[in-house]
Amino acid sequence: MDEEKEVPSTETDISPEKLKADKIAELSKKGYQLLKEDNLKEAEECFSSILNMEENNNYALVGLGDAARKSGRFNDAIKHYRKCLDLYEANNYALFGLADCYKAMNQYNKAIQIWEEYLLQDPDNITVLTRVADAYRKVRSFIKSKAIYERVLELEENNAYALIGLGHLHYDFKEYKEALYYWEKMVTLHKNNVDIRVLTSIGNCHRKLRTYEEGLTYFNMALELAPHNFYALFGLADCYRGLNRNEESLECWQSILENDPDNKVILTRAGDAYREMGDYNNAEKYYQKALNIEFDSFAVIGLALLNKARGNYREAIESLTSLILNDPRNHRLYTETAECYLALGDKNKALDILSEYQKKGMHNSFVNHLIDRIRHER
Predict the structure, then answer these.
(1) Of 238, 252, 187, 167, nearest to 208 (Cα)?
(2) Which of the chain's ends, N or C, has fewer CB atoms near its CB within 10 Å?
(3) Could you tell me if 44 and 64 are in contact, meaning their C-beta atoms sit under 8 angstroms apart?
(4) Left, alpha or beta for 174 (phi > 0: left; psi -120 to 50: alpha)?
């Protein structure tokens, strides 16, 4: 008789450790998927479940850090990332998340320190390099920021983040022509898909350089992409203002006010446009609208200039001298006050107010020119 053959079992014995590991892997995968979907509460539940099974699981600690960071709870996120790094010193994901938390909290020097730790392991990581360069820009370290952006361009020619960053860096340091070089390069490289922020940035360079016609071109390009974009409308209006095309400037201010009727800055600019056009009643109405929202020194200046234009010189002087107390370095307040005194025939008072400006140790060509003019006319 043949020996009985052993029948293989249809069930495989699985150890508790294997079941636990599989469960952890499943929860981890699910948690990170929920993070991608911005379902942060459920993601945190998954990662917390993992820690209940394995309290030092690095994936769960980073996952909880990411969920807290995405929720804006940066201090909570930092605790999770720090715990992970205490256990796993070189965890890149924890370093990256930790640095991003400090960046979001405007603690740029701490962010730089963490990112530089990351770069010790991965020195050519372009994403991290651009973040470090951005952070150095935020703390106004021009040389370090520029060097890192240029390093990125060595690794990846025409990297968009580096080109845009170099533009912002030069703009922040008032090197507008240099900023234009980098931003215009972006336009050349991405003719059919230019970021609207690049277009408005180029327009702003032209505003600063007072090349207003060129600025109009770029702000109009931006408006073709987004007809109600605040920054494009503001820039366009300001360029028209610089060209003394007040009616066109007013149209832009009004377009902004359609969507933001209580913007006191724009109400004041609209008032200025009406004043320049000689429509004093509308100008006064818009200045008052701005002041009804809250005090605005530019609206007060506008009303003072209206009084000056209407021949109400005493009222204008009263407003302007009160503003000088709060803004003693604003040369325009002194020159406008002096001109009011001149209109009243009081040259001595005009010289006194201008001399008061100079006695504060300040120098301005408009003030100097007006003093010379008064003295020569005596």
Answers:
(1) 238
(2) N
(3) yes
(4) left
Regarding whether 105 and 44 lie in a shared domain, the answer is: yes
* Residues 155, 161, 166, 168, Cα dihedral to 10°: -170
DSSP 34-101: HHHTT-HHHHHHHHHHHHHH-TT-HHHHHHHHHHHHHTT-HHHHHHHHHHHHHHSTT-HHHHHHHHHH
Tokens of 179: 């900023």
CB 62 within 8 A of CB 81: yes
Q: What is the number of structural domains in the chain?
A: 3
pLDDT in tens, 136-172: 999 999 999 999 999 999 999 999 999 999 999 999 9
| Residue 262, CA distances (Å) to 266, 287, 288 in order | 8, 12, 12
Burial class (CB in 10 A: 0-12, 13-18, 19+), 257: middle
What is residue 367's three-state secondary structure? helix
Is 280 within a domain? no
Q: Which H or E element spans position 167? A: helix 160-172
20 versus 330: the higher-pLDDT residue is: 330
- Residue range of the domain that includes 62: 28-122
Q: Are 304 and 320 in contact (CB under 8 A)?
A: yes
* Residue/partner pairs of 206-214 with CB below 8 Å, 24 or more apart: 206/180, 206/239, 207/235, 207/238, 207/239, 207/242, 208/174, 208/176, 209/176, 209/177, 210/242, 212/239, 212/240, 212/242, 212/243, 213/239, 213/243
Residue 268 lies in a domain: no
pTM of the model: 0.84
Q: Dig out the tokens for 176 from the structure.
A: 């507008």
**Claim to verify: residue 116 and residue 143 sit in the same structural domain:** no
Measured at the CA of 132, the angle between CA 131 and CA 138, to 5 degrees, comes to: 90
258: how many CB neighbours lie within 10 A of its CB? 8
CB atoms within 10 A of CB 24: 18
Q: Tell me whether residue 180 is in a domain.
A: yes
